[in-house]
Amino acid sequence: MIEDNIIPYILGTLSDSEVASFEATLSTDAELAKKVDAARRTLAPLDAWTAPAPPTTLVDNILIQAATTTPLEFVAASASMSPTDAQSAGRPGRFRLTELIAAAAVIALMVSLAIPGVRNVRSNQLQTACKVNMAGFGEGILMYAEENDGSLPNVGPSPNSNWLSDPNRRHLLPAVRHRLVLPKHLICPAADGTIDEKATMKNIEAFLRRTDLPFWAVPNANGPVPKISIRINVPLAADANPLFQEGRFRRGANGTLTPNSHTHGGKGQNILFNDGSTRFIKTPILDQNDDNIWTANDIDEYQGTEAQQSATDAFLTP
After folding, report:
1. Tell me, what's the pLDDT at 93?
2. pTM for the full model?
3. b vs e for 273-285, b when ≥16 Cβ sit within 10 Å of the residue's Cβ?
4. Of all residues in the chain, what percent carry a pLDDT higher than 90?
5. Predicted confidence (pLDDT) per residue in 158-210, tens digit
6. Measured distance CA(176)–CA(187) in Å, rounded
7. Is residue 124 assigned to a domain?
8. Which residues 6+ apart lie within 8 Å of 169 measured at CB?
């Protein structure tokens, strides 16, 4: 439409041919002439405003400021520089309150965008570190089984044994004592808890009975000595069992079983399988038989004396 050229015509941004065409129409169209006059009156204040010339010392001022401030201070000062102030004082002006607020808002926005990404990176790093530790544990267990006719480490039954107060991980004693498995390979780095490796090796039994560290959950050792080759895809370890914390059986807030380990924010758990692979699984249910790695079949109350309900029941306990 011809009206679309009114503002460009007044501002002088039309080409010569467009100006000629517009003025030809303007000379015969009284309504268009009125619109042009109205537009000129609206834009008249622009003609009265003169942009101040930049100071001749602008470049020198910027270089001086850059040499005497940090990068962030330099950006802030340059953004708020007033030409008048620079000419009169020979240096950049100060930040105004509105500019400070705007800068703070931008920084807050950048931080809010960056923090989730940083958290995700950190979470992934811990998940990977957890896999590395678990892989080291798996390598030691496989070596032990190879030297012991496929049997997992086991110290045999003890009188009145209760795996809630006397954790099943005590059966790992032979593997740790022979340094096939190191104490650091038994703990997920994604949860709180540190150990003194040297002090631990002096009293391995006490270490394996601790309940204040994020130990792996391992196969329940009640009953016959478990073999490593019961079937394919048997879990040999996983992040801490969420149902048995600090020696007690726990349910969720609504009474349901807590699905995933707490060591990775409830997102899932790393699981070591008997083929030596380690995978991050988002559910404790592993196969079509609805086998929950945390429980012995459908039992939902434990005394600490329970065992697997079948040869293929994956029951990982403290």
Report:
1. 53
2. 0.60
3. bbeeebebbeebe
4. 5
5. 767 788 878 888 889 999 988 999 888 888 887 666 677 788 888 888 888 88
6. 13
7. no
8. 186, 208, 209, 215, 216, 218, 318
Smallest Cα–Cα separation from 295: which of 229, 254, 250? 250
Question: pLDDT of 78-113, one tens digit each?
Answer: 445 444 444 444 445 555 666 666 677 777 666 666
Calculate the alpha carbon distances from 62 to 54, 56, 72, 80 in Å. Answer: 13, 12, 14, 12
**Tokens standing for residue 151:** 């049997």
Answer yes or no: do 302 and 196 share one domain.
yes
- Give the pLDDT band of residue 291 (cuts 50, 70, 90): confident
Residue 308 amino acid letter: Q
Q: How far apart are the first and last CA of the chain?
A: 79
CB 258 within 8 A of CB 280: no
Residue 23: which domain range?
2-48
Residues 242, 142 share a domain: yes
pLDDT of residue 25 exceeding 70, the answer is yes
Instruction: Tell me, yes or no, whether 304 and 164 share the same domain.
Output: yes
